[in-house]
Fold these 2 entries.
Entry 1:
Amino acid sequence: MSMRQTHLLTKTRKDAPADEVAKNAALLIKAGFIHKEAAGIYSYLPLGERVLTKISNIIRNEMNALGGQEVFLSAFQPAEAWQKTNRWDLPVWFKTKLVSGGELGLGWTHEEAITAIMKNHIASYKDLPKAVYQIQTKFRNEERAKSGLLRGREFMMKDLYSFHADTADLEAFHERCRDAYLSIFRQIGLGEHTYLTVASGGHFSKYSFEFQTLSKSGEDTIYLARQKKLAVNKEILSDDVLAEYGLLKNELEEQSAIEVGNIFKLGTRFSEPIGLSYKDEAGALVPVVMGSYGIGPSRLFGTIAEIYSDNSGLKWPDAVAPFAAHLVAVGGTDEVREEADRLFDALDRAGIETLYDDRQTAQTGEKFADADLIGIPFRIVVSTKSLDSGGAEIKRRTETETRVASSEETVRHILDAYHI
RNA sequence: CGGGCCGUAGUAUAGUGGCAGUACACAUGCUUUGGGAGCAUGUAGUCUGGGUUCGAUUCCCAGCGGCCCGACCA
């Protein structure tokens, strides 16, 4: 949906917030995408909500293509299932007392919850396999929030859980999910910076896979074999691991990276204690084999901001930009305003989401600075100058040269760029 | 959770044991419109609680909050 900037909820700021060092949060606050509530806790304002929704929808499409069915589990978690898996007493919980007695925790992940629910729906081998996912707020009582959106106490997470009759089926699904994840990172613009990384399996299995996006701001250190498109997390680096994955020491480069996703083979770590099992064809009771697969849309949001930005502001990849085009009317003449209004309608009718800077009072320099800061992929300027040269000036955020085009050409140009 | 730094207007900052200042933003008016414009007028502030003091925004203590380093990160 297109919008006039005079209607937009937010304004940009001239000064960066003093209490944010992380580039992602500083820029996003300055440009009006997010609002900081507390350390590691952010609200999403209209521009930010649009980006987050685009990221989420790309993920959603891939999850649906995998056969995942979307659910929305409660954030409040009762103790029972978590006590069975010995995860109720972890410090990561935010817990709260009920007035009527008893205690609830705020979900920081949902393996226990979904496993318990599936007991109602899986009883036979005929009920398998199944995959369910949700995109939801998670709460983690981090001892130290940091790096803006990259490590928050409250954040958005897509978590997918898969249920299988045997390990072979889990393995096959796990591979498809890995490919789906790589596709997601490509689509949102992080593909060339993101690498499959062997990491610790935690308490679930020997190893797991992470997806690490190279960035100086990353908290993780990985050893990357660039040609093989595979990395090893420093936490498990050893000769054994290298041998197992066919990597050579001399081809590894040390890099900082942001963990943007992970996939785990859980096996029966949750199904056994919680009692999720099925009857096989012989009538024997067998525990369900599970996997879990996480991606944090809010962390991706911050990662993109961190990577795609310069001194002037953000530079959104096309697929996740809050708008496709930023139409800027320069100068207050009636002729300019009428032509800009017409072009705004034309862009909108063509299905190009456009933010229209129709402010009468803002100076030209302020408008350009705002356009650079907000970072919408295409900037279109209508001014007396552009009208004299035959239409509107069009420029990508990532380019410095503008070109002049008629209204029709402008619309066509952006449609082509977006393959609409 | 250990260590360090820091809380002054919506934002960014200065300053002082005795009337708290500047810039941006905001409001009104006029001017202005190709890289954060100009003039005038106006609105708006010392995190909370205790202590010392004639007097505390300033000094002391505690709390709350923020940032950084480390530890942690299923």
Entry 2:
Amino acid sequence: MTEEVPGPAEAVDSVLTALADPTRRRLLHLLAARGEVTATVLAEGLPVSRQAVVKHLAVLDAAGLVTARRAGRKVRYSVQPAALDATARWMSSLAADWDRRLARIKRLAEAAEQDPPPQP
Amino acid sequence: MTEEVPGPAEAVDSVLTALADPTRRRLLHLLAARGEVTATVLAEGLPVSRQAVVKHLAVLDAAGLVTARRAGRKVRYSVQPAALDATARWMSSLAADWDRRLARIKRLAEAAEQDPPPQP
DNA sequence: GCGACGTGCAACCCTGGAGTTGCATCCACT
DNA sequence: AGTGGATGCAACTCCAGGGTTGCACGTCGC
């Protein structure tokens, strides 16, 4: 399930929904800490069943946050920073955009305060 | 509902869950575009009821993404970039952390390849 | 004061998704 | 070959939360 190149909007959407779940975030932390681990091992460090972990990993994989590497009868997952970084940049530019708009609106409001508008 | 100073973890959590909902993201875009608007006006530009918008605004407010300003009988909301920016930074540093760990692990793996490990 | 507009509150559906259990399947190892 | 460990698949439960409706409350304008 590492295919399908989505547009930036869908990418951001999937990353955000993936990151919204606390269990998934814990999973990511575990993965980042331990490198390449199987779902079964990950489940041992979490208060949920292996199946739940597998489902979460599928979501994270779809969001591009992790990748699965099959080795014989076991599948090891590892973290993939690119998608996270992309979303971080997107978010940061969004914040900058808001800042610009806010500054502009504030400037307009101040101008209108000492200069009564033409509308009654 | 603009009080309670949460730790960084809770802050990130609330921002992420707030951003996970598509309707809430549309709300934020509307707010960023139009400046200071009331919930009723916002609801006109969305396919949901005013009450739904109010609930979403409450969530966004709790996450620190918007603020409410009461003026007479109407309440105008506006976007607040600080919380978004903070989460963006957090996310970015997390990605950098993953990158470091990945590089380290890859380096170890390569070293172990030409140098058979002591475990049988 | 009184009507109208805008909000706040509460109770209520209903769907998505997080989690579980049980079993089938596959692969390594002896 | 056969056994045990690891993954995959499917059906099922359960509840948080997104959405709605109806009404009460406050505030502006006349």
